[in-house]
Write a structure and sequence with these properties.
Oligomer: single chain
Radius of gyration: 24 Å
Helix content: 10-25%
Distance between the termini: 30 Å
Order of helices and strands: HHEEHHEEEEEHEEEEEEEEEEEE
Mean pLDDT: 90
Shape: globular
Number of helices: 5
Largest sheet: 5 strands, antiparallel
């Protein structure tokens, strides 16, 4: 995924600054600028969402939500309304486009373009992530035994992201204990519903098996053939089931190992530091169980 942390904070500040400057009516200059713009290009009327009465009853109490229909992600009416909102925003903020670019360019100029994480050693390899100038996505690499040996690129997310408006590789990707395979999750929608992929690091082959709707953070068994993973509830995105997958077998044959039926709990996986055990974690707001 794109650089997070610092760049996210900067862009958030940038957005707030532009909104405040663009929407502020506290100065004569701002008001006059808006009036001048509106004379040349009349602003479109703000979109108004349709009210559709929906009764929702819980704990013996009924309430009315007139905008419940807006949670229908695939409804063409919802998409049309969001498109209208975006178009209205662009029209209202058009007089700040020059300022937006100026602030954005300044933020980018203060970010180190060529960067690299601190390497860590695992199972005979040093792993690290680096960024190249002019590229937005990370390159995940490793070197055998020491940092002077040749670099091996595991995943170049810049190449993988081509053709996508959004592309994120989960931070929880895992290399098999025999150093042959990497299991990694990909999200192209930005809902953190990762599809697991498997790559042979010796041949570069991407295996045909794909496992949808996971957390993107699998764990390998020590046989380097079995992978454990967590799936999400399709509606709530709660992590609730754990499966095992054997490389080379159909995903339809994967075995369900655990199901957290209590919807106040979520589940996860964690391999012990000794590499001998894999823990199932069930957690809620006030308690955690292993």
């Amino acid at each position: 995924m794109k650089k997070t942390g610092f760049i996210f904070s900067c862009l958030l500040v940038f957005t707030l600054m532009v909104v405040i400057i663009g929407c502020s009516s506290g100065t004569k200059e701002s008001t006059m600028a808006k009036k001048e713009i509106s004379k040349k290009t009349p602003l479109p009327p703000p979109p108004i969402a349709e009210k559709i009465k929906k009764e929702l009853t819980i704990h013996g109490h009924t309430r009315i939500d007139n905008y419940f229909w807006l949670n229908e992600r695939e409804n063409p009416k919802v998409i049309d309304y969001l498109t209208a909102e975006n178009n209205y925003l662009k029209a209202v903020m058009k007089h700040t486009e020059g300022l937006q670019k100026k602030i954005y360019d300044e933020i980018v100029a203060r970010i180190k373009q060529e960067d690299q994480s601190v390497p860590y050693k695992l199972n005979g390899y040093f792993y690290y992530t680096r960024y190249e100038k002019g590229k937005e996505y990370p390159i995940h690499c490793r070197r055998k035994d020491n940092m002077e040996n040749p670099e091996e690129i595991l995943l170049d997310v810049n190449e993988m992201a081509k053709g996508h408006d959004f592309y994120s590789v989960s931070r929880g990707f895992q290399v098999s204990p025999d150093n042959t395979f990497i299991a990694y999750g990909v999200d192209t929608v930005s809902r953190r519903k990762y599809t697991l992929h498997f790559k042979n690091l010796k041949t570069g082959e991407i295996l045909p098996q794909k496992i949808p709707n996971t957390t993107g953070s699998p764990e390998w068994a020590n046989d380097s053939k079995t992978v454990y993973y967590v799936t999400k509830d399709e509606k709530t995105l709660r992590t609730h089931k754990i499966f095992s997958h054997s490389l080379g077998t159909p995903v339809s044959e994967d075995k369900k190992l655990y199901h957290e039926a209590d919807d106040t709990f979520s589940v996860g996986l964690h391999k012990s530091r000794s590499q001998k055990y894999i823990f199932i974690i069930s957690y809620s707001t006030v308690s955690t169980e292993y």
